[in-house]
Each structure stands twice: as C-alpha cells, then as structure tokens.
Amino acid sequence: xxxxxxxxxxxxxxxxxxxxxxxxxxxxxxxxxxxxxxxxxxxxxxxxxxxxxxxxxxxxxxxxxxxxxxxxxxxxxxxxxxxxxxxxxxxxxxxxxxxxxxxxxxxxxxxxxxxxxxxxxxxxxxxxxxxxxxxxxxxxxxxxxxxxxxxxxxxxxxxxxxxxxxxxxxxxxxxxxxxxxxxxxxxxxxxxxxxxxxxxxxxxxxxxxxxxxxxxxxxxxxxxxxxxxxxxxxxxxxxxxxxxxxxxxxxxxxxxxxxxxxxxxxxxxxxxxxxxxxxxxxxxxxxxxxxxxxxxxxxxxxxxxxxxxxxxxxxxxxxxxxxxxxxxxxxxxxxxxxxxxxxxxxxxxxxxxxxxxxxxxxxxxxxxxxxxxxxxxxxxxxxxxxxxxxxxxxxxxxxxxxxxxxxxxxxxxxxxxxxxxxxxxxxxxxxxxxxxxxxxxxxxxxxxxxxxxxxxxxxxxxxxxxxxxxxxxxxxxxxxxxxxxxxxxxxxxxxxxxxxxxxxxxxxxxxxxxxxxxxxxxxxxxxxxxxxxxxxxxxxxxxxxxxxxxxxxxxxxxxxxxxxxxxxxxxxxxxxxxxxxxx
Length: 583
Description:
Elements: E1 9-17, E2 27-32, E3 37-42, H1 47-64, E4 70-75, E5 95-98, H2 101-122, H3 130-136, E6 143-149, H4 160-169, E7 175-181, H5 191-203, E8 206-210, E9 213-215, E10 230-234, H6 239-256, E11 261-270, E12 276-282, E13 289-293, H7 300-314, E14 320-326, E15 342-346, H8 353-376, H9 381-387, E16 395-401, H10 414-431, E17 433-439, H11 449-453, E18 457-460, H12 466-472, E19 489-493, E20 502-507, H13 514-530, E21 541-544, E22 547-548
Parallel strand pairs: 3-7, 3-8, 4-5, 4-6, 6-7, 13-17, 13-18, 14-15, 14-16, 15-21, 16-17
Antiparallel strand pairs: 1-2, 1-10, 8-9, 11-12, 11-20, 18-19, 19-20, 21-22
C-alpha cells in the first residue's frame, strides 16, 4: 500500500472469545473508512472511557500515516481539556481546538474551503476520493480528522444545508469524523441545531457506551452477530508511548525538511544565548504572514532592519522579493534604496492610497498566479517551482511599517483596504504572496479580528499598554508585558497568541552603533549586490506620491520566458493604480 493512502478501515477494538467458546485468536474490529465517520454516545459514568477511546483511535490513525499528513480538528466548547495527549500536537500545528462559537465558525469555514477546492479543482472525475488521488500524486494532500462534540456543535449559527453539503462529500475530500455526546438535553435542540444533529444521527452509525461497556450494532459493524460468541473490547493502547513516538518522528521530519520554509532569517538568540531563533514563513512552520509590535527604543527597528538585510544575504531576487512601505515619516526604509531584493520602496507617509494600490496589485497578481497554477495543475507556488526550475516564481513579501495608521477610523478608505487585505491574507499563502505588518501600537486603530486570525506569527517587544496585549494574544497570555526592555527581549509567538506557542529570545544587535548603522547597512547591501549576477538582483522603484525616482527599473531577477505573465513592463514609470484614484 502507498504510505500516503488512507487506511481502508478504522480500528476501534477487538473481539475476544467468551469463556464458554473454544479458544481462538482475537478479531480486530475495523469500520470501513469510506463511511466517513461514526458517532459515540455515552452516559455520565462512561465519559472518561469514551474520551480515552476516541483519543486512542486518533493516535493510532496518526501513527499509521506519514508524519504531518493528518490534521486533527476538535470542535468542543467544554472548559476542561478532553484530549490531553492530542493537545501536545498543537506546537506542531497538527491539533486544532475550536473552543467557542467564533473559533468554530472560522474553523468550519476553512475546512469547507479545503473540501470545496479538492472536489472542484483537484480531484479529476475518474478519481473516487483523495486517498486514490494520493496514490500517484507527486504532492500528496493532507487528511483531516474531525472530533465534534454534539453537545455544542453544530450550533444555530450554521445552516443545516451547509452541514449536509459538507458531510455528504467530506469523506471523498479526505475527511473522517467522530461525533460524540453525552446525555441529550432535548430543550437545547432547536432550529438549525436540531435539524443538523438529526441529519448527523441518521447518516452516521452509533457506538453506544453505557455503564463503561460498549456494544456493537449491525449499522456500525456488519458482523456484530459475532458478539454472541465474542466480547467486544474498545481500542486500547499505550497513549504515552504512541504520542512520544509521533512527536519524535515529527521532530526528525521537521529537521530534515526546514527547506520547506521559503524564508528563514535568524533574528534573535534563545535566553541562554546558545541557539538562533528564526523568523520563518512557509510550509514547515505553517506561518505565512506576521505582525511585529514594539515601541520607540524597544529594538523593533533593529530587528526589522536585520530581517530585511538577512533576506538580501540569504536569498536572491529570483527567490524572494520585497515591497517596503514606510508610514513613519518616510525615513525608516530610506536606507534600503540599494537593496538587491526590493522591487518597490514607498516613502510617502501621507499618501494612504499607496497601501490600497499595493494590496490591489498583490490581489491582481494572486489571481494571475492562481490561473497559471491551475493551467499547470498544481496547488501552490512550491509545486509550481518544482515543475519549472528554470522559470520559478519569486515569493513576495510586503512589509508595511506603522501599519496601524491604515486601520484608523479617520482613514476614509479603510473598509476598502481591509477587504483586499483579507483576501490576500486568506489566499496569498498558496501563491507566494505574504505580509508583515509593523507597528508601535494598536491603540487608536481597529484591526478586525478576522484580519488578525490569519496572522499566526506574532512578534512583540515589551508592551506597556494592556490593550495591545489583549488584541495580539489570548486571554491570560500577558508575557509581553513582563519582557525586559533593557535586554531587548522579544516574544515570538507562532500560533495566533496561544500561550503554549510563546518563545522568548534576545533580539540580535544592529550591524553597528546607531551613529554608524546607516553606513553599515548601505555598505553591507552594496557588497551583496556587487557579488550577484545582474539577473539575480532588482533595482527598486522609489515612490513618493506620484513621483517615481527610479524610472528605468531594470528587467532583472525575472525568469527568461517569453510567456511568463509576471515579467514586469519596464516601459511603465508609475503603476496603473497610481494613474487615478483607488477603486
């Protein structure tokens, strides 16, 4: 069997011969995975056993598949944790908990989008399901195991039509679901919730656990009549050993595949000074956009400068390109006029339409790249570049300094900007378009939660305003307020502000003392640029309003392909979107 195929059957336990039956081998109980899932009903006395049973199934399934090929999503609003072993996979971005209505909505939306993409764009008509697709796929897709507590979800905020549409085809798209619930409270079953649960109960067979004993039925297991001669024992395993093995394999896999991150720049040292901490974007880290916050004198500007310099040191403009927007008096990025990876440098802190235009330009390129990859029948930029090593598409990173000004209420085109930004954050990851927002504070700005929800990588120097902490980090994660500002401590959080994803480091020092830093940066960039072949560098357009200082932008660092739609038009001195008002 190809290792990327999904198991034919889901192991849920053993049939052991009863005492009065001749001694025979135990019989494993397997449920056909094509059924898409099943339900577990339990009484109050059996809840702990049920939790262990469900967790065992998930651990065994993850162990049977290649590392990082199974993501587990738990929809459960209970305060107490239910799956303690699975939760250890959070730091590896393989376990996702949706613990309230807002998180559940976002999670289901994303899963629905994955299923829709696979069913409409990925699977050809002759392929029965994702497992069959993965048998021969050069780039296999991940599987998803959903664990849904029916005591809380689906709720009334999701329509029954969406629930039906999703679960009718979820199995084909690579999803398997285990529903579970305790004693039902009929008074809570109303409206959409009642209809959704009724549909689920009819579609999926049920395993009942009462008085700590499980019973099989024909709907669930077609050979359940064997229970006349055999006792059914729930799946049991050494959870501690299995999770240790899984994490060991994941760690080894991550060390072998750091190249999956398209960007890795050392920005800090661990607190003991022994190891580098990296700013990483890409498939391995599962981070695709970032936000950096820190007040004057915190070390934010030095870290940002080191990051931008590091990109020049480690990557050519064929690999990573920069778009820099400076809303801090137009001086923060002026030092990067000679950066060999910078395509456009915006230095007008008064013209906010530049930001809208740049986001629109990225959105247009997203659409063009999506069309190009669809024609190539690949799902993302990494796959496309592997198929086209001679004409790769560069990753593009847009960095906006003092970005909070674009979310202030008196910015007339804020809503328009947010709309395009949201689309870029949702879709850009697949097409190599990424964003870093930099700011001193979030006070006075209103960044929508939906925007922040797509920015998992969050870096913070010492915060003095508790409201900034609340906006960036989960409740109770106030570590950013305790950082030592004198030691330039920085908090790197890789999972949307969740406390368990915190890492504290000491930011790397600048290239030189403050008085000499600009000269040191310019000298460094000039040395890097001089060491590169002409086709591996770009010369930035420097824009202040409608003025373009470098009008003869060189056609460099571009694939030598006549039909590549991303070769820049060197006859243009000003982007199209600057010729008139933003749309």
